UniProtKB/TrEMBL annotation:
UniProt cross-references to PANTHER family, sorted A to Z: ATP-BINDING CASSETTE SUB-FAMILY B (PTHR24221), ATP-BINDING CASSETTE SUB-FAMILY B MEMBER 6 (PTHR24221:SF654)
Topological relation to the membrane, as annotated: Multi-pass membrane protein
UniProt source species: Dermatophilus congolensis
Top-level taxonomy: Bacteria, Bacillati, Actinomycetota, Actinomycetes, Micrococcales
Location of the ABC transporter domain: 345-551
Protein name, entry field: Probable ABC transporter ATP-binding protein HI_0664
Amino acid sequence: MNTTATRTSTFRDLASLAPSLRPEAAPLAWTVFVDLIANLALIGLSVATAHIVAVAVIEHRADDPVWWWAAIALALLRPIISWHEMDISHSVAYRVLARLRMALFDGFARGVPARTGLHSGRLAATAMTDVEKLEFFYAHTVAQLAAAALLVVLALPVAWLVAPAAACVVAAAVVALWLVTWPTLSRGERLGAEQQSRRSALSEAVVDLLAGTREVLVFDRKEQAVAGVTAAAAAVDVPARKIRTLEAWGASLREAVVVGASVALVVVGATSVTLDPVWVPCLLAGSLTLLAPVAEAVAVISTLQPHRASARRVAQGVALVSEGAGSVVPAAGEVGVSGDGGVAVSTSGVQFAYPGRAVIEVPDMCVAAGEHVGIAGPSGVGKSTLARLLTGLWRPDGGVLRVCGLLPDEVPADRWPGLVQLVEQDAPLLHGSLADNLRLGVPDASDAQLCEVLERVGLPVDGGVFSAGLDTQLGEGGAALSGGERARVALARALLLSPAVLVLDETTAALDAVAEAGVMDVVASVDATVLVISHRQRTLERMDRVVVWPG
């Protein structure tokens, strides 16, 4: 692989996250300044200490008080400055990470669910692992690299004035540090990308395993499940070990460069006829202390390659584009049934395609406002796709879809929840209280409103189902409830928004006859346009009419 292209692409991927640093420009500039002062203080301390020792050894006397006071002051100042630099750099880093996570969640809100089927495990890995890995970049890289560059620019001219030969040695060492690091960049990038890919696969495997715990136990596949996760974890360790080995080789080469520079500086000092012998140790100490942060900065550059994949995935998540709910507010009027003859839902030549699959052609249909219509047909013809199109999650690839007389692009994103609500067969309930789940769409709903809507769906708070009332914890996915109870809670959550159009997608598919009848009784009482997608004849019989889609 071309190392120039690798280095360029790595910095381009990392630079794509630079906008998140803009609000931190002032603190970041201060961090660079403090880091520079810390490095200069360390150089000054090294020179002062070397001068004190050299005077004692060569001239057999105590050094002048100014050197002692300088050494004491710098020894006290250096740890304070270093602590302050670490404090503000990490403060900046974690503020940036918080901003990145919020931008990432905004991207998820726009682009999830996607027709490409983004895996929740991969998204979780991006939000947590990838963002966390970038802490190193923001806390230990940006300011430190800038400070090291400034240090070289400021120190080399001074070194040239004191000892031109020593300045040449230091300059050559800086170049050599970069040259020995250059060959490791492309391999580090490949290993970093491989490691992140395998971590994502591990995250996906764990999420799938947790989601399918019941099936794993029922089919007695515990050992196979554990073996699969163990193998995925072991696969992550392979590139990780190679990265550590590569970094160790790079560190050894850089240490060799520093040792070589030390020998060269000793030779320069020993052969100099113009330099006072007392200043030879000072020159050696100062030059090596100058090289230390430069070597560390070059080492940091070599570790940036594995972070490229994380930066790229975070940037991709932040840049996710909405396939649905628009942000353009209509020029006039509120969202509602417009002058289209009281038509709530209409489709004309609507087409939609999933990647790698044939185009779905939605049959033309027209549903009047307030009408309850059933939709039946073979699996795979696009009934659930229509449900998602109606909620604004996705956009049709062709044709015209209108909801309450409006095109999808005419409906602002914050109006969709009150316009269309979808209750699916496996409508998700969050791990939290009953009230938290009901307030998902109406955060300011009162307890009285929650109790009223629960009563409406046949789940009174004091009916014995909810032991702690509205504070009852439902468990992950509503595990504490039966299938019928979960369906009713999801229906109650939807009804709380008083949508103009209510869509049920196989909501009763997994319910027994009694639970099904209870849910459909509630649906029949809804004063809104209702579309019920179902294969069940009993469910469809409760509708005003049924539209049968051809296979």
